């Protein structure tokens, strides 16, 4: 689709691209919160009127719901001019009608809410040209504002600037650890840029979503492509998944724990319900064994004696439960090795170099020089010396 609603500079046309499925497909643009409108081509049952609401995306991941006139036909990718608190704005339609009804119901937004603004019209060439002009000023405004913040010595970080479609207002997105006094800053910005100023504080995760980037998995950040619900990620999520508590590996580009730690957490919690508590101690006649680690997928638990911590014994979960039941009855087995599982170590393939080029520096070695002097070949026929007496 024609993008123009994010900071990646993918274009600004109003016609959808991608699979060209009559405007229902939202792929092919910048990849920010795209999805497929699976209800776009369905007719309303019994001739009921269509749901006159649409979802409009502005710069990056900012989305809002708007009401549009019944005589206006909208498709995914259309640029529309919407009503705003001061003047009007330009955004891109991402969903309309019945799919928006479901989304509004999930977010507890009622259609009769008076705070919902209206879509005025499809954007004209004049609206788009003015919108492009103010979008081109955002980078320059961002750099100037950062210099002003440095001069005023404010403890904040400015991450993005977004102009309204008609330039009547500019939104400055920032992050800060504490409260910031903006009175002097707003005066300087208003006199410098001649527009209304709105300072909007966002979190570290929202900042990463607006800026974008590539994660350690090699793909675009989830928060900037499809994720809209930023839930807190506790360190216990890593412990349940048997991950090492290494902040360098567990933290994302926002500096917080990665959101993907929550994706498989429920599956791990369901699987761990069949495992004994990690604080379980197994009593034997040889001594008390302590739990060391757990393999959820293989269903194994490792226990070790205090004097043999380097030699843990893998035991299946069912056998661990049997030992716990024996301990409750006052019985102690002889040794954990009787219940242990002997793991077969798979032999790794041994790769041999059949070419014989083992040394990486083989081309750096100088070529050997033949220091032996070449012997002069003797002629086959010897020349006779002239006789002196002749």
Q: Helical amount among residues, as a percent range?
A: 10-25%
Quaternary structure of the protein? single chain
Provide the structure class.
alpha+beta
Largest sheet: 5 strands, antiparallel
Secondary structure tally, helices: 10
Strand content: 15-25%
What is the topology, as strand order, of the major beta sheet?
2-1-4-3-5
Backbone CA Rg = 36 Å
Number of strands: 12
Q: Could you list the spans in which at least 5 consecutive residues all have pLDDT below 50?
A: 11-18, 20-24
Overall pLDDT confidence? 83
Order of helices and strands: EEEEHEHHEEHEHHHHHEEEEH
> What is the end-to-end distance?
110 Å
How does the overall form come out from the CA principal axes?
extended
Top keywords for this entry?
alpha+beta; GMP Synthetase, Chain A, domain 3; 5-stranded antiparallel β-sheet; 4-stranded antiparallel β-sheet; 10 helices; 12 strands; extended
What's the arrangement of secondary structure elements?
Blueprint: E1 53-57, E2 63-67, E3 79-83, E4 88-96, H1 98-106, E5 119-122, H2 125-136, H3 138-152, E6 157-163, E7 169-175, H4 183-193, E8 196-201, H5 204-211, H6 222-225, H7 236-240, H8 247-250, H9 265-272, E9 281-283, E10 288-295, E11 300-304, E12 313-316, H10 317-328
Parallel strand pairs: 7-8
Antiparallel strand pairs: 1-2, 1-4, 3-4, 3-5, 6-7, 9-10, 10-11, 11-12
């Amino acid at each position: 689709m024609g993008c123009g609603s994010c900071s990646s500079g993918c274009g600004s046309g109003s016609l959808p691209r991608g699979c060209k499925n009559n405007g229902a497909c939202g792929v092919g643009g910048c990849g920010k919160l795209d999805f497929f409108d699976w209800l776009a081509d369905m007719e309303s049952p019994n001739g009921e009127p269509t749901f006159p609401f649409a979802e409009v995306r502005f710069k990056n991941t900012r989305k809002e719901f708007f009401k549009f006139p019944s005589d206006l036909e909208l498709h995914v990718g259309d640029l529309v001019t919407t009503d705003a608190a001061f003047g009007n704005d330009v955004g891109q339609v991402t969903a309309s009608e019945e799919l928006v009804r479901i989304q509004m119901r999930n977010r507890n937004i009622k259609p009769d809410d008076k705070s919902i603004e209206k879509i005025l019209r499809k954007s004209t060439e004049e609206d788009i040209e003015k919108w492009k002009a103010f979008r081109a000023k955002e980078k320059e405004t961002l750099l100037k504002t950062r210099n002003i913040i440095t001069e005023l010595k404010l403890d904040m970080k400015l991450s993005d600037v977004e102009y309204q479609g008609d330039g009547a207002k500019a939104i400055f997105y920032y992050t800060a650890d504490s409260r910031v006094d903006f009175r002097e800053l707003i005066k300087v910005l208003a006199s410098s840029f001649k527009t209304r100023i709105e300072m909007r504080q966002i979190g570290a995760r929202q900042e990463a979503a607006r800026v974008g980037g590539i994660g350690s998995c090699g793909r675009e950040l989830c928060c900037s492509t499809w994720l809209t619900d930023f839930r807190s990620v506790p360190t216990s999520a890593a412990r349940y998944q048997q991950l090492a508590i290494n902040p360098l590996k567990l933290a994302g580009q926002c500096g917080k724990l990665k959101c993907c730690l929550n994706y498989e957490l429920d599956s791990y919690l369901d699987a761990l319900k069949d495992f004994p508590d990690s604080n379980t101690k197994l009593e034997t006649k040889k001594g008390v064994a302590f739990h060391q680690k757990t393999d959820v997928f293989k269903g194994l638990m490792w226990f070790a004696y205090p004097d043999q911590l380097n030699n843990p014994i893998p035991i299946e979960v069912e056998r661990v439960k049997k030992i716990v039941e024996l301990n409750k009855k006052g019985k102690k087995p002889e040794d954990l090795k009787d219940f242990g599982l002997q793991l077969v170590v798979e032999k790794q393939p041994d790769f041999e170099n059949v070419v014989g080029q083992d040394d990486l520096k083989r081309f750096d070695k100088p070529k050997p020089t033949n220091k032996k002097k070449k012997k002069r070949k003797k002629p086959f026929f010897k020349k006779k010396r002239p006789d002196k007496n002749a």
